[in-house]
Amino acid sequence: MESGKSVSEGNSKGFVFPSIYYFPPFFTKQPNQRAFESQIRNWGQLIVEYCKYHKIWAINKNGSIVSKGIIGSNEVVSDDRPSAGDNISNNNNEDNNTNNGDDDDGEGHHSPDDGNVSERLELFNNTKINRHLKIEFIEEIFKYMVTNNMSGWHNQDILNNYQRKSDSRDSIIVYWKTPDDWAAMILEFIESTGNSGSIMTLYELTLGEMVRGQEFYGLHPFLLHQSLQVLVNQNRAQLMKDENGVVAGMKII
Amino acid sequence: MSKKIGLSSFTNSESALKQYQQLGKSLADQQHEKLSIQLSVFQQALANFAKNHPEEIKSNENLRKEFTSLCFSVGVDPLAASLSKKSASKNKNASLWSKLLGDDNDEFYNELAVKIIELCKKLEDVNGGIVAVDELLKIMTNPDSPNSIVDLTESDIEKSVELLSTLDPNFKVITVGDQNKKFIRSVSKELNNYETKVFEICEIMGYATVGILVDNYRWSSYHSKDVLEEMVSFGFLWVDVDPVYGEVHYWDPSWINKLERGT
Questions:
Q1: For the segment B39-56, what is each residue's pLDDT rounded down to a tens digit?
Q2: Most confident of A66-75, A223-232, B179-188, B243-252
Q3: In 10 A of CB A194, how many CB atoms?
Q4: What ipTM did this prediction achieve?
Q5: Closest Cα of chain B to A132: distance in Å?
Q6: Considering only CB atoms, which chain A residues are within 8 Å of B202?
Q7: Is the distance from CB of A128 to CB of B262 less than 8 angstroms?
Q8: Furthest-apart CA pair in chain B: how many Å?
């Protein structure tokens, strides 16, 4: 399916929707199995592309953005902000907020919409053709995306060392880059800057001066932990835990 | 080999290693050469066979299937023009296939046919195997695509598909309605009269509904629904529920590309 074909007048702050987004049946679950498979594949791709464009980390099944932008800086739009006293990176966050209030990743997150956590996505609701996705269908798309490594369930409180882990399937972390991709990127950066062997806090790794301008600057903690786990499994990283058993730092070996 | 001690032992083992490597390489090269010769002989034999028995291959379906699968298993693309160069055949620019069809000058249509097959198969998930010729033309001549073909016309596509039908009878140009709207069918399903009528409506509106069919063709609503649902089950139509009236719109998927600007 040529869904990559673009529409010249994107109406979403410059995001260009594929032509299938304007095809009304795209929003109704197709009874024909083959058509359905093509449909859900196109939805998965569209969600990934859309989130990549807007740097959205997590969305929920109501079509709202759960987490977006540079996590840990002022511009964070997130419910993933660690609660007080959780760990080292949290303390650093507070410092960061005062120091780097004007941080900008150059992607232009300055519209008044930003900062509104429950911003509703036009993605699932095409007002131009008056069609929207039903929640049940969104749930199905999410499931498809998780199965196909396009996303992960957003139901683990990583900053609390997985203590609050639920079966909730209300929202997903969208993998516009997979944890493997992020892991490779982090590894390459650390090796090329000669930091192998030295301990780095998670804060330094995603918000420190050194990583400013890197693609993983402000990386969502869920993805950070997943990609570190990838490196651990490859025997390329060691994790440092604080007295509560929460991961606070890492070392490339 | 006498055993040496000290630094010289290193140089010696290195040169021995080199010799082994050289020997290994020359053996592998010899083998490779032998195999390549065998393969090219076989390829040539295939090409000659195609040249000498075009009628049999054309007329005998089993032979044609066997021949094609044989070609693929030895890495011979019966459609590719490059083959004739390798096998040093007399017709330098003609593919096996064009020899099969006895039409050495129609390389363009053969290559076009390959592209049409690829595209039709790719679109089958979405349209069930029925695609309008003008839609194919639009995709194939899309200037944004790196593979776009300049100066392509609808009749080029039709001619190419007619050639194709010789090899795969499922590929066929079908005509719908008074406007003689042309479609290409890439599946074995034949369109019946009712289904053709539905496509005529879709051609104008993008979709059909039970109500539209009842009003325009005086079909019973039961029959109309039956035809539409069957077309959905074949993948020819996509279902859309009107959010205001709850009426089901049965859309022709070729409109995905027609609705580009939104409505």
A1: 888 877 877 777 777 777
A2: B243-252
A3: 8
A4: 0.71
A5: 9
A6: none
A7: yes
A8: 103
| Minimal-distance CA residue of chain B relative to A42 | B126
Say how far apart CA B14 and CA B199 lie, in whole Å.
76
Among B126, B239, B249, beta carbon nearest to A31? B239
State CA B58 to chain mean position distance: 19
Tell whether A212 lies on the interface with B, counting CB pairs under 8 A.
Answer: no
CATH 1.10.10.10 region(s) of chain A?
A: 179-252
User: Residue B135's pLDDT is what?
Assistant: 87
In this prediction, residue B8 carries a pLDDT of: 62
User: Nearest Cβ partner of B259 from A22, A31, A37?
Assistant: A22
Domain A19-155: CATH class, spelled out: mainly alpha
Q: Which tens digit of pLDDT belongs to each residue from B19-33?
A: 888 888 898 999 988
Mutate: best of B119, B122, B125, B228, partner A, most A CBs <10 A: B125
Q: With beta carbons under 8 A apart, name residues in chain A contacting B262.
A: 7, 9, 22, 128-129
Q: Give the CATH number of domain A179-252.
A: 1.10.10.10
Give me the CATH topology for the region B104-188: Arc Repressor Mutant, subunit A (1.10.10)
In angstroms, what CA-CA distances link B2 with B7, B13, B19? Answer: 14, 11, 16
Closest CA of chain B from A61, distance in Å: 20
% of chain B exceeding 90 in pLDDT:
21
Judge contact between B251 and A23, C-beta under 8 A.
yes
Predicted TM-score (pTM) of this structure: 0.67
